[in-house]
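Here is one chain, start to finish.
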Amino acid sequence: MKHCISSSRRITKVLFATAVMAISGSVFAQSVDQVLQADQRRLNLAQQSQERINAVVQGTRSLEDQYRAINKEIDGLKVYNRLMRAQVEGQTATLEDIGLSMDQVDVINRQIFPLMERMIDGLDQSIKLDIPFLMEERTGRVDNLKDIMSRSDVSVAEKFRKVMEAYQIENEYGSTIEDYKQSLTIDGATRSFNMLRIGRVGLYFQSDDTKITGRWDNDNRTWEIDNSARNEVRKGLRVARQLVAPELIIIPVSAAEGA
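Its structure:
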C-alpha cells in the first residue's frame, strides 16, 4: 500500500514537473516571439527613419545643386551686365560723335560741293588740252559726272567716289600703252586707222596696209603724216596687242614746253 502511494506521488511529481516545463516552454516561446516582433518593429522603424533621412539628404543635395546653379547663373549675369554696360557706354559715345558729325554735315556739304565742281571742270579742261585719244569715252565720263552732281538720289559720298574714280582712270592713262580703232580725216579723206597711244606723250595712227602712218601734233592740234616712223609704230601696235614682248620703240614725240 505504501509502495503504491509512493509511486503515485512520484508520478504526480513527474506530471507536475512535466506540466511546469510545458508551461515554461510555452511562456518562453511567447517571450521569443515578442522579442522577435519587437525587433522587427524596431527594424521597420529604423528602415522608415533611414528612408526619411535619405529623403532629407536627397532634398538637401537637390537644394545645394540648385543653389550652386543659381550662383553660377548670377556670376554669368554679372559678367554679361558688365559687358553690356561697357557696350552701352561705347554706343553712347558713338552716338555723341554721330550727333556732332551730323551737326557738321551741312558745313561739309557746303564745302565739298564747290570742290567737286572745280575738280570736274579741271578734268574737263585737262581732257580738252590733252592728246585726243578715246575722246568720246572720256568726255562722256565728264558729262556723266556733271549729271550726277545735279541728282538728289545720289549721296555726297557716291558723287565724290565717282569724281575720284574718273581722276584715277585719267591718271592710269599716263603709264599704259594702248591700241584701238578710230576714224580720222586725213587730206580730206575719212578712213579708219589703227591708233597707238603711248602714255600721254604720243598718239600715232597707221592704216591697215601700213602705207599711211602719222601722229598727233599737240602743239598745232592737228594730225600729221609721218611715214618715217612706219616700222616703229607697227612694232608698237604689236606690243600693245601683246603679240610680241615689250621692246624699245624709237618714234618722234612733241618737244616739251620750254625746250
